[in-house]
Specification:
With 198 residues, this protein is an alpha/beta fold. Helices cover 36% and strands 16% of the residues. It has eight helices and six strands. Bound molecules: adenosine-5'-triphosphate and magnesium ion (MG). Adenosine-5'-triphosphate binds next to helix 1, strand 4, helix 5 and helix 7.
Length: 198
């Protein structure tokens, strides 16, 4: 039996779809902080994206699984999708702490998400559940941080899921922005082609 993980990163996101910006951030934080693993946690429904129709959770989860194949430092947790409903980070972290007793959790957020941290449900409790790690994101200035968040600079990848969805709709290439298996999955399952507005 392998030893229990003691330092675990968690990158929450809609991952609609997962792209190389997510993977570069997860990989960089893993190395910079000497983590055992980084878990990608796809949301079920995102509170800040109500009214926005994301691809089905099973598809987003499967694309995450395909994206991390072959890299043991990265894994995917279905904890938020299995809980269902709107995903709140406070629940993600509470459930992961139950599943990984004794582990120190590091919750990773990009500069854009970090800006809204104080609006998150039970924001004041989040710091008790995990350490928060901000990562730089191309095009988003780092907000002024009042608390002791760790910051990790990641190689700038000016890619977003919104951009990937737009490209699919426009017939523009997404190869090299997302892992090849993800691009294949999008094509095979005909995701993002049927126009909705972002
Ligand atoms: P969307 O355009 O649909 O909002 P996104 O590309 O922002 O998609 P999310 O699933 O919203 O992806 O992001 C999940 C997490 O990953 C967030 O904390 C976000 O800040 C971070 N992130 C996303 N893209 C990058 C990137 N290129 N570099 C660094 N961090 C990123
Ligand atoms: Mg986003």
């Amino acid at each position: 039996m392998s030893a229990p993980l003691s330092r675990v990163g968690v990158l929450g996101g809609t991952f609609d779809p997962i792209h190389h910006g997510h993977l570069a951030a997860a990989s960089e934080v893993c190395a910079a902080l000497g983590l055992d693993q980084v878990l990608l946690a796809p949301t079920n429904r995102q509170p800040f994206k109500e009214g926005f129709d994301s691809a089905p959770a099973e598809d987003r989860l499967e694309m995450c699984r395909l994206a991390v194949l072959g890299d043991d430092r990265l894994a995917v947790t279905p904890v938020d999708i299995e809980r269902g409903g709107i995903t709140y980070t406070v629940d993600t972290l509470t459930d992961l702490r139950d599943q990984l007793p004794g582990a120190q959790l590091y919750f990773i957020t990009g500069a854009d998400a970090l800006e809204r941290l104080s609006e998150w449900r039970e924001a004041e409790r989040l710091g008790e559940l995990a350490r928060f790690v901000g990562v730089t994101r191309a095009g988003h200035p780092l907000p002024q941080l009042d608390t002791a968040h760790t910051l990790v600079e990641v190689p700038a990848m000016a890619v977003s899921s919104t951009d990937v969805r737009r490209r699919v709709r426009a017939g523009a290439p997404i190869r090299y922005l997302v892992p090849r298996a993800v691009a294949d999955y999008i094509a095979t399952h005909d995701l993002y082609a049927g126009g909705w507005d972002d």
